[in-house]
Specification:
2 copies of one chain form a homodimer.
Chain A lengths: L5 H23 L5 E6 L4 E9 L4 E14 L2 H7 L5 E13 L6 E12 L5 E13 L5 H16 L5 H12 L1 E2 L4 E2 L3 E8 L7 H26 L6 H21 L1 H8 L4 H4 L6 E3 L11 H10 L6
Helix pairs in contact in A: 1-5, 3-4, 3-5
Chain lengths: 304, 304
């Protein structure tokens, strides 16, 4: 018999959303989040929070949602499960800093439950991850981002970080460019109870990883946000943001799934960067910082 | 027994490429095309021509390619045909004007052949179309673009224009936004010989439609290129360009097929606009020109 974590995880993500938004606003020093709440016709809704035009953050969103009801056909196909009632909740965030020297980040943590006709939980899993997309690569920033997540994961099992780090490198990749979207982080999906690891274990693990996000990312922003940058570095950031869009629109399962299941478009596409460029065949100069970034994105590194 | 149009159509598209590029340069008055020729390892290659930073055209490409050899597995799956040798050639163009008052256009015309082991043509078809994406809608421009194509098509069969106009509205659509990409044009695919219409007929039709492109588009550019526009109109163009990117990366079969079959990335993605914006939940003011554009994109109109 499976225990439901529905209300506990929902409460957790809403509280975390408040805390992350407060920390981001504090780091920005100028902009504040605007909130849009929305309802889903078939059950549930969400709380979209958007920041824009800040001193540090050019655009970002920190969203939560809890949706439930009868599993739509598209989700039955996608998840390869039987028709049933479901509950899903999650927090999802993307932050696009103005400065090309401050990396973009994305994170999400979510929980899913399925019920039998008597309302008993028959399947459940946790999922999530956080990854970093620099435009100029400071190795110590990538190492810090990974180290914080490794430390959080190691408290549960030392095999988790290497496994979920590799999954992240594999998932956040533009195969048509032969490049990673960024320098990775962690990514995990379908963490279901097993005889060795119960739901409680995965719930605590997922919460711990979600809690680690602020410490993994914001110290990097603090280090880089006041650095001077040149116009040509902003240009390079906008070209690289194009690769971010390519990943999200061509490859990202979450985005495509959201669009194909009539998710709330503006909450899904808040992940796209504010200003983006595509120029023809932009190639970095040999031995430049831009060239080194691409070299690292081609061949994922171990950062810790 | 099918007649091959391989060399005739190849010669035609290369000559047309020269003439379109000359007409576009002439209209721009400043920028000229840069040419990249490329080879395909398994057979064939292409001639990519890019214009950028012009007086009128901010970015554009007019490309031709001829590829042949053994049909890759991905194409066997996609086309639902048997393993065979193939030949394909086409011209493909996208022009992104600087001014938000000048519409973006896209066109392509192509020919495909399959052979049996003796090298005899066993299947063949023509395909193509041209469509218009305004940011501010001048009804007379949309009407002109459609009228020129209708006139060209009517010389072959008066049922073609209505059929291919409807196919264009259906194809160039962002269902996730419930909007057309633009105001349409024509779109046709798999024009195969039948007892009533032989390959010669479809070849002549496709060539006539391709020939009509310059007359359909450039007079619109001539009318609008010198008009004054405001900064907020440029902003709106960049937001709408985001929808163009969404269509090309999420829905366009040609783009996705190219990326998944290891096509030449930079030649495929030359279709993406130069500068693009995504802001959260941008809504036009009621009764504004921006609101009217969206209204028309929601519900395709008959223009002629």
């Amino acid at each position: 018999m499976l225990v439901s974590y529905q209300s506990e995880f929902s409460d957790f993500i809403r509280d975390l959303q408040d805390r992350i938004c407060a920390a981001v606003e504090n780091m920005d020093g100028e902009a504040t989040f605007r909130e849009d709440t929305w309802q889903r016709e078939q059950g549930g809704g969400g709380r979209t929070r958007i920041i824009a035009g800040g001193q540090v953050f050019e655009k970002g969103g920190v969203n939560t949602s809890e949706v439930y009801g009868r599993l739509p056909d598209s989700m039955v196909d996608y998840l390869k499960v039987a028709h049933a009632d479901f509950f899903a909740c999650g927090i999802s965030l993307v932050l696009h800093p103005h400065s090309p020297l401050v990396p973009t980040t994305h994170a999400n943590y979510r929980y899913f439950e399925l019920y039998n006709p008597d309302g008993v939980v028959v399947d459940q899993w946790f999922a999530g991850g956080a990854d970093l997309t620099p435009y100029y690569l400071f190795d110590e920033d990538a190492a810090h981002f990974h180290q914080v997540q490794k430390t959080a994961a190691d408290r549960f099992d030392p095999t988790y970080y290497p496994r979920f780090k590799q999954a992240c490198d594999q998932y956040f990749r533009n195969p048509h460019r032969d490049e990673g979207r960024g320098v990775g982080g962690t990514f995990f999906d379908y963490l279901r109870p097993t005889p060795e690891r119960d739901g409680q274990h995965w719930k605590e693990f997922t919460m711990a990883m979600a809690e680690a996000f602020v410490e993994a990312y914001l110290p990097i922003v603090a280090r880089r946000k006041a650095l001077f940058f040149e116009k040509k570095q902003k240009y390079w950031q906008e070209i690289r943001r194009g690769r971010y869009v390519e990943f999200n629109l061509i490859h990202d399962k979450g985005t495509l799934f959201g669009l194909k299941t009539n998710g709330r478009i503006e909450s899904i596409l808040m992940s796209l960067p504010p200003t983006v460029r595509w120029d023809y065949d932009v190639l970095p100069e040999p031995n430049s910082p831009e060239a080194r970034l691409i070299e690292v994105l081609r061949q994922p590194k171990d950062w810790v």
